[in-house]
Amino acid sequence: MLTGIFMLxxxxxxxxxxxxxxxxxxxxxxxxxxxxxxxVLVSPKDYPSVQATARAxxxxxxxxxxxxxxxxxxAIAGLRLVIGASARSRxxxxxxxxxxxxxxxxxxxxxxxxxxxxxxFGRESSGLSNSELERCRYLVNIPANPEYSSLNLAASVQVxxxxxxxxxxxxxxxxxxxxxxxxTDSALATADAVARFYQHLEQVLTSIGFVRAQQPxxxxxxxxxxxxxxxxxxxxxxxxxxxxxxxxxxxxxx
Length: 254
Ligand code: SAH
Hints:
Blueprint: H1 4-8, E1 11-16, H2 21-34, E2 38-42, H3 50-56, H4 60-65, E3 67-69, H5 72-76, E4 81-85, E5 96-97, H6 99-111, E6 117-121, H7 130-133, E7 138-140, H8 153-178, H9 191-207, H10 216-230, H11 234-253
Parallel strand pairs: 1-2, 1-6, 2-3, 4-6, 4-7, 5-7
The chain binds S-adenosyl-L-homocysteine.
């Protein structure tokens, strides 16, 4: 039977360019305490490091199993839902969740087989850039003291992982009461398939003159927000890519 703890193994925590190895260790510990195990590090400044291992304090296996990649795109490529943790809630006009809603979304995706789900955390110094946040379907903000709202990186991972655990424990007790439940196979497109579609779309819109060189950022942002709202399925991305290819062929043959 699939249990809540099993669900937590489908959640990936991504640290984008963390600079302090101590924080990486503290994140591993926070994750293990809450039953999560999948950690991805994007270009960590100082890693591996004895400081990370010391702060992991018994959660070393999470560090050993952690994947290190050199770009955020590589980190999120196989994910079916990407959520970005941001200390500044109004930085970008983007769908915003609190940690409880974030956990509910992750659970919803898990139940539909739309996993893995990833939560991306930013640099200690500057968080996530707008273009990094735009790669996320939702943003999650911990509604902290507005005058002092930026948590330590590992502390923010702890809060998010706690809510994930609570959501999954609640689901587990429901599942037990019902005698177990199955998931369906995912129909949703992966983040890299959606990213390739956005690139293709921008390329075609530029080539037919719909998007001009000086405005693609704002226009593309609006379009991405639109498509992000629909939770594109694999088949739908294929159809949209097919439409773009037909437009390209048609405009070349004129
Ligand atoms: N100085 C940065 C904050 C960096 S804190 C800034 O102002 O953006 C490092 C990371 O911890 C953030 O990028 C975010 O992923 C997470 N974090 C910190 N406080 C948070 C909060 N209140 N809500 C959600 N995530 C938070």
